[in-house]
Design a protein that fits this description.
Layout (H helix, E strand, L loop, with lengths): L1 E10 L9 E7 L17 E3 L1 H8 L6 E5 L9 H9 L5
Parallel strand pairs: 2-4
Antiparallel strand pairs: 1-2, 1-3
């Protein structure tokens, strides 16, 4: 189970994929506690990999962006591979 703050559809706003439609998976939880952070880490819902994948599939985007919080604290190889099997670009 992973604590997810939100999953949403938007356009990538940074990097070489700027303007690309993407599904953003915003994780809750972080060990850095930066002053400028825009994630309410106390909020979120616990979701299984399958629930996350099902939510991602509700949106018409091939790109998936992990954000947070600190995704590295919860992100697993299994979730990445499962999304790739669904044709997603991570």
């Amino acid at each position: 189970m992973k604590k997810i703050n939100e999953i949403f559809y938007s356009l990538q706003g940074e990097g070489c994929f700027t303007g690309t439609p993407a599904v953003f998976i915003r994780f809750s939880g972080c060990n850095l506690q930066c002053d400028f952070c825009d994630t309410a880490h106390q909020e979120g819902v616990w979701m299984s990999d399958q629930e996350i994948i099902e939510e991602v599939e509700n949106y018409p985007a091939a790109h998936v962006v992990f954000t947070g919080g600190e995704p590295g604290l919860q992100l697993t190889r299994e979730l990445v591979l499962a999304l790739k099997e669904k044709g997603k670009f991570i």
